[in-house]
Each structure stands twice: as structure tokens, then as C-alpha cells.
Design brief:
The protein has 219 residues and is of the alpha+beta class. 52% of the residues lie in helices and 8% in strands. Helix 5 packs antiparallel against helix 6.
Length: 219
């Protein structure tokens, strides 16, 4: 194996945050874009969770949690002081706390708002209102700083903005208005307007075993 391998799905926010970390850390991987409705056998055999993203390291070790892949990317990057910059020791507890809040609470309401028809007896408006509470809380942090914990982003920003983006997309689809306050909107815009965004969201062909290999970033 010449490159680490990332199984990914373009629109998955967990996969987006991993690809973002790889971009910032300047780590090139073989990328395998898969169809979540028709998962390839090779992927299923390697993954316990059966969901993306997963990283297969050169030594065949498998990393299945997106946050663990992000931390791996920081440790593998050759960029000077990158770990101290994006995962500072004095902010680790706060970083883990806000990521946990996103992954376990905000996402719960986001899913039930965005995919309301998938859940029986689901109150779409209730979940929209509760998701909004998180974006407003985060907006208050961003009124004080450009990013959650200062003028430089941390892995907390990397990990959460793809989910806020998903919330924005759901709100637009369902004709909601005034769903993002100014500070969090500007924060999200800073990622979506970043020059790396196009590379981040490049549309790869679906992976086919023993066929052409694709690499991320693509250039």
C-alpha cells in the first residue's frame, strides 16, 4: 500500500471534516468514494461501523472515528507546530466538549429536522427549534472571537462547520428564514468561501475495486 486510504462520501459532514483536516495538514490519501446505498464488499469487510469515513493506514490499521482521523492527521502532518496551533493544550477540554455537543445533541435534532419523514411521530418544528438553540449559543461565542476559541480555528471549528452547513441547507430546503445569526453566518462563510472548498468538495467517481485510483486532494 503506497498511500493511506480514505473511504468517503462527498456530502457526509463527518467525511467533510476529515477531508478538511487532511487538506489543512497537507496529507495526500487514496480516496474511495462510495455509494452509501450500495456499499462495496471491500468496505464492509474493513469497517465495523459500516459507515464513512474510515481510514486504512499503510500498515493496514483501521481508524473508524472521524475525530480520531483528524487527530491522526495532525500527528502525521509535516507542517511546523500544526498540532499546537489547531489543538492547543489549554483548550483541549473545551474543544472536546463542544465537539461532543455537536455530535451527540445538535446532530440529533438536525437529523430529525432535515430527515423528518424518516422518523415516526416526529415533530419537525420541535427539532428545528432545538437545533436553533445550539447555533445561537455558538453564535454568542463567535460574537467575541472570529472562531470558537480565538482568532485561529481549532479542530472544533473544523468539526462543526460541516454540520452547520447541513443545517443551512435543510433550512433553505424547508423555506425557513433567519436561521443563522450574523456571527455564525460569517464564520460558516469563511469556510465555504475558502479557496480550499472547491478541492474539498471535488466530485470523485464512485470507487470500483481493481480499477483506477483517485487521490485527495486531486491536485
Amino acid at each position: 500500500m503506497t498511500n493511506d486510504i480514505l473511504y468517503s462520501f462527498r456530502r457526509c459532514p463527518y467525511a467533510i471534516r476529515v477531508r478538511w483536516a487532511l487538506l489543512i495538514c497537507e496529507i495526500k490519501v487514496e480516496i474511495r468514494e462510495i455509494d452509501l446505498q450500495n456499499k462495496p464488499l471491500d468496505f464492509l469487510n474493513k469497517s465495523n461501523t459500516k459507515t464513512v469515513p474510515i481510514l486504512i493506514k499503510k500498515n493496514s490499521e483501521v481508524i473508524e472515528e472521524s475525530l480520531e482521523i483528524i487527530l491522526w492527521a495532525l500527528s502525521e502532518s509535516k507542517k511546523k507546530n500544526i498540532k499546537l496551533t489547531y489543538f492547543p493544550d489549554n483548550k483541549k477540554e473545551d474543544i472536546f466538549k463542544i465537539i461532543n455537543e455537536n455530535d451527540n445533541e445538535f446532530k440529533y435534532h438536525l437529523d430529525r429536522f432535515k430527515y423528518a419523514t424518516r422518523y415516526k411521530n416526529n415533530n419537525e418544528e420541535f427539532h428545528f427549534t432545538n437545533a436553533l438553540k445550539f447555533t445561537k449559543r455558538w453564535n454568542k461565542l463567535l460574537e467575541e472571537n472570529k472562531y470558537f476559541f480565538g482568532d485561529t480555528p481549532t479542530i472544533a471549528d473544523w468539526s462543526i462547520w460541516p454540520f452547520v452547513r447541513q443545517f443551512k441547507i435543510a433550512c433553505k430546503s424547508q423555506k425557513k428564514t433567519n436561521y443563522l445569526d450574523p456571527s455564525i453566518k460569517n464564520w460558516l462563510d469563511s469556510f465555504e468561501n475558502n479557496r480550499r472548498f472547491r478541492s474539498l468538495m471535488y466530485k470523485y467517481e464512485l470507487w470500483v475495486p481493481h480499477f483506477r485510483k483517485y487521490y485527495f486532494p486531486s491536485n
